[in-house]
Design a protein that fits this description.
Rossmann fold; alpha/beta; about 350 residues; five-stranded mixed β-sheet; Alpha-Beta Plaits
């Protein structure tokens, strides 16, 4: 999960482009002239066969098509435009010189036209109808912009901006979802060894680079459905659902080995990155297992890995572990000390 750049303002207003498709030069020019006093960029096509190619290459904001064209009719051309997914949002107005019978209007609208208008002596009406369609398009653009911003903000709220991984909030939701689904659960709580020293000796820029590389390494080793989380500071969480608990230690060991290949500050002498991993495994048979209990068991295993010398994996089975009663939040089974960080 990665956050994207969030545009701070909606799309700016711009000169709108109109395309007129009419195979009679005089009639086409008459329609162009109707919009001469409006702030539009108007183009005209005399050969309707070029319309699909032109619109695909230079998408206008609105297309006006004469209802009666040589060869392909305006109604048929309208239908062809509507069949192209990338062109479906472009408003189309069919027009004729005089009023049309009801059947013609119905065929045009069912073919995909947004409007059907007679232009003879009704130039103000045509200009108004064009403005309405462009206003509707503008509204759709703003709505789409708002939807994109909402999706991006939602994604950003679940993403750690430094590493691009899911953040703690997203991780908590993922754990709750997996617990509700039932079945075997493997929770890896990972801590970078001596990370405070990395920041103190080499600076926070190097520390950030180490966090990013560890995150990439964990993500590369994860399966498609596994959840990899930066849980806070130098701690990461890997949540694996549905695997036999017997293979959990091997998976955790592969994560540890992969991270141990990372080196940093090569100009000062290569320094190896190591991690300690506390693994909590559940067969799925434990009744009423909570997120807090799962984390408490993983955290206690991580603490043991730290006390045993770091750069190692310690596994704890939920069924064999004392669980805190009525936990109100994540609480390590044993208080952390500076030496165990």
């Amino acid at each position: 999960m990665r956050s994207e750049h969030l545009d701070s303002a909606p799309p700016m207003e711009r000169v709108r482009r109109l395309l007129i498709v009419d195979d009679l030069p005089k009639r086409s020019q008459d329609v162009v002239d109707i919009f001469s006093s409006d702030d539009y960029d108007v183009a005209a096509l005399l050969d309707s066969d070029d319309t699909l190619e032109y619109v695909a290459a230079q998408p206008p904001d609105l297309v006006l098509i004469h209802s009666e064209l040589a060869g392909t009719s305006g109604v048929e051309l309208c239908g062809e435009l509507r069949m192209r997914d990338e062109l479906r949002l472009i408003p189309i107005i069919l027009y004729s010189e005089t009023d049309n019978d009801e059947d013609s209007v119905v065929r045009g609208l069912l073919a995909g036209a947004d409007d059907y208008v007679a232009v003879s002596g009704r130039h103000l009406e045509l200009r108004a109808r064009v403005r309405v369609q462009l206003r509707n398009r503008r509204d759709r653009e703003l709505l789409r912009w708002a939807e994109v911003q909402h999706a991006r903000l939602k994604d950003a709220a679940m993403c750690d901006p430094l590493t691009g991984l899911s953040n703690r909030r997203a991780g908590d939701r993922a754990v709750a979802k997996v617990l509700a689904a039932g079945g075997p659960i493997t929770c890896l709580l990972i801590d970078i060894d001596h990370f405070k020293q990395v920041n103190d000796v080499f600076g926070h820029a190097v520390g950030d680079a180490v966090l990013q590389e560890v995150a990439r390494t964990l993500q590369r080793r994860a399966r498609k459905d596994d959840v990899v989380v930066r849980y806070g500071g130098e701690e990461f969480l890997v949540l694996i659902h549905g695997i036999p608990i017997q293979i959990a230690p091997g998976i955790a060991e592969r994560y540890r080995a992969a991270v141990s290949d990372i080196v940093f500050a090569p100009n000062l002498g290569p320094r190896q990155v190591t991690i300690s991993i506390g693994v909590a495994v559940s067969s799925g048979d434990e009744t009423g297992l909570t997120r807090e209990q799962l984390f408490a068991v993983a955290d206690a295993a991580l603490y043991q890995a730290k006390r045993a010398g770091r750069d190692r994996v310690v596994l704890a089975r939920i069924a064999d572990s004392p669980l805190p009663s009525n936990p109100t939040g994540r609480a390590p089974a044993v208080p952390r000390t500076e030496e165990a960080s």
